[in-house]
Specification:
By secondary structure, the protein is an alpha/beta fold. Helix 3 packs across helix 4 and helix 6 runs parallel beside helix 7. One of its GO terms (cellular component) is cytosol.
């Protein structure tokens, strides 16, 4: 069962879950189960399903709902956010209501590519909130690298002021540290709500974003336990310790952010760690060469050595 509806106090790590497929490209629900258990074992706060890196556009409507239902049933009460972005507002509305009925805690919406200007952004989301109604919590997914749509902090402030169901910003602008600061400074104005901000981009800038007021991460790095511990240390005021831990993993954080093969690398690691039965993506998808795998081998070996030196000697990948 779900842990209730998402609200402005959300924090921690909401892992963007990969979607497992068989070698033949069929949805692998057994691996959905094992991957959910793996993420729970890493200590995640919640799940984000049907995200960009979850290959959501490759799923049928029925498959999308089956993934949501499977994770809800196995998530041990963790909150679940579901990506519902679509070119058609009716599709956004329908999927949002279906996943909330299935037990989701909220939905995430990105602006459609090609949306023009500040008023265009505001008016689009005003329509989204009207279609969804006041009872479905919404996350604004700010990912201009994908959508080509820029969200000005002033527009986000207007949306927060006007629509109480907007409870979170998924902050993925790049570079975006100054924007994060502007949003947090804007919330200090009298009468303004403070909303949750979770950050993405593979966690590439996580320590700096936490210092600037982010509440946690919403990304899919293949070692979620690092994200969890970094956020926990930051919440305890131990930022230097958090940065030291982050630095150990940074080469693999960076490596996984490669355009084109980033998801293939992430799925390969999840496969090696025993979380999924196959690293395959549903076609069309990228694949790794022998050289790619050798590079990954070397980076994982280096990570293990650095963890051992730091007194964290556990193996991080299955043999």
């Amino acid at each position: 069962m779900s842990a209730g509806k998402l609200n402005e106090q959300a924090k921690g790590v909401f892992i963007i879950a990969a979607t497992p497929f068989t070698d033949e490209g069929a949805l692998d629900l057994n691996s959905v189960d094992s991957l959910t258990d793996f993420y729970l074992g890493c200590g995640v706060t919640g799940f984000t399903l049907l995200g960009i890196m979850g290959e959501a556009p490759k799923l049928t409507a029925e498959e999308s709902l089956s993934v949501v239902d499977r994770v809800v049933q196995r998530s041990q009460g963790r909150q679940i956010i579901v990506g519902v972005s679509h070119a058609g507002l009716e599709n956004v509305r329908r999927l949002s209501h279906e996943v909330m009925i299935a037990g989701a805690s909220g939905v995430m919406v990105a602006p459609p590519p090609g949306l023009k200007g500040d008023e265009g952004v505001y008016n689009y989301f005003a329509q989204v909130f009207k279609e969804l109604g006041p009872d479905i919590p919404v996350v604004y997914q700010d990912y201009p690298q994908s959508t080509g749509v820029y969200l000005a902090p002033s527009v986000f402030e207007r949306l927060v002021d006007d629509f109480k169901q907007l409870v979170m910003l998924k902050h993925e602008d790049w570079p975006g540290l100054a924007k994060l600061t502007r949003v947090r400074e804007g919330e200090k104005k009298p009468g303004r709500r403070r909303v949750s901000i979770l950050v993405g981009n593979g966690g590439l800038y996580l320590p700096q974003e936490l210092r600037r007021g982010a509440d946690g991460a919403m990304t899919g790095f293949a070692w979620p336990e690092m994200l969890v511990e970094v956020c926990d240390l930051a919440a305890k005021g131990k930022m230097e310790e958090a940065e030291d831990l982050f630095d150990i993993y940074l080469p693999l954080v960076r490596h996984e952010q490669q355009l084109g093969i980033g998801l293939a690398l992430r799925k390969e690691v999840l496969f090696r760690r025993g979380a999924i039965k196959s690293p395959k993506q549903r076609a069309p998808g990228s694949s790794l060469t022998a050289t790619d795998r050798a590079e990954l081998d070397n980076l994982i070996a280096r990570l293990e050595r650095r963890l051992a030196v730091a007194g964290r000697g556990a193996k991080v990948a299955a043999e």
